[in-house]
């Protein structure tokens, strides 16, 4: 019999077999960074304690200090007050995504809850504090669950006003230096957004970016003199470039137009430094410009990887990054913009796994049914093979698989299981035309892209084409269910995490602020019933034969538990092998480290059992 702790290729590895817990012994960070006003400290959100809490640390290094002590609540955003006294944050409970706002003394103390609408969502502005630090801006749907307002309140008192109360989902972005204006965004879909200018004198908000069709406009930092603000847009382009909006001339000019998306943007308040990140085929390229000299600032100490958090200190001297790599988990880095030095503040790889046994992926492209070349990250185990492979499908679907450390991937590789992680049509990062191909086509052409992936794998001499698994969460879970129900002969095992099984019931149960988007994005659950059912995995449930593992959060507001319940019930009626785990204290994904470790560890063991064990 084949040892399940060895690669199933006839050539046992000389490397010892490490437990999944060792691969997963990393700290996971939320995408939030905030500097103290003088730049001497940085606050971040990390699950070191078992939950996503705020920690702060000196930017020169040293011991980190935990600020919040939540167990059931997860912090999603954080900002540091201009006077340095407070940390402002948004948190939800057990994954329900009903974010409430709080503040806590920056040196530690008792949290103070600022909003109390248990069934409403609140989101902080990108730069929530007014320049004097007395007022904050945020978004909330507390008055009408289908519409999200822009709200302003006194930090020490009550709500001041709602400068935008209108139909739609509005979010404030940032304050002008004089505190007279706010930029705000209206999101009509993932690919259609508008910028509004709010003047805090009671006048009507002004739409600054009129356009037709799918165009993104997203406001960035203000110029130090208040003459305008930077923005990211893909107007008349496939990719999002950097522009500057001039208030005086009521228009904007291009600043940078790379043939890839700009996805992070920050500027120092004194107007000296401008920093941005370009997503080049999934890898981040950092750029910093000294606006006084016009010269690029070299940042040689920043490793190549994927940036998920980005901030410039208020004093303009430091740039903070959350940056991950294929063989290194995400860590906090601080770049000194004055001398170019880089400090890695955190080091959370605690499992004792030697770097030489970890695998970096190869960027490949495989052909699909209509001639497109699908970009994908291919992870090959060490050894000759033939190996089983898991097709890993990202969520979104408007998201992008990137070369970041994955404990699940690396564990599977160590057990002789390869991974192919594609960016099929609908993925971000490859232009807006490619991204919008998924609209009203869930379970359509992208399913053919997954079929093409399976055939591509079968054509590789080191792959055992009879032992292919498929895995994904959210949209990736829907795609996993589509694969095993509509392409049943291709798969030997599957794991679905919070995936929709019925597009009609899914579209009816999404959060209230999403409902106006569903007809354009997926389909209208009232008028497109036949079309949506034709694309739904539940319609093909009788064709599922592969062993299936379904994981669901009971509090998931995006893909409610009923989506998993109904397909599991149908499979059990047929006597098909299906494991079903529901986490009562989670939502759309995992916030508690213990739950995440169990779910992903069980996923890993499931694939080892059914793909490696299949060769026994």
In the CATH hierarchy, what is the class of the largest domain? Mainly Beta
Strand order of the largest sheet: 29-30-32-31-33-34-35-36
Largest sheet: 8 strands, mixed
Q: Mind telling me the C-alpha Rg? A: 24 Å
Report the principal-axis shape: globular
State the share of residues found in helices, binned by percent: 10-25%
Distance between the termini: 5 Å
CATH superfamily of the largest domain: TolB, C-terminal domain
Task: Provide the β-strand percentage band.
Answer: 35-45%
Total of helices:
10
Show unreliable segments. 1-12
Based on secondary structure, the structural category is alpha+beta
CATH topology of the largest domain: Neuraminidase
> How many beta-strand elements?
36
Mean pLDDT: 95
Any guess at the CATH architecture of the largest domain? 6 Propeller
| Total domain count | 3
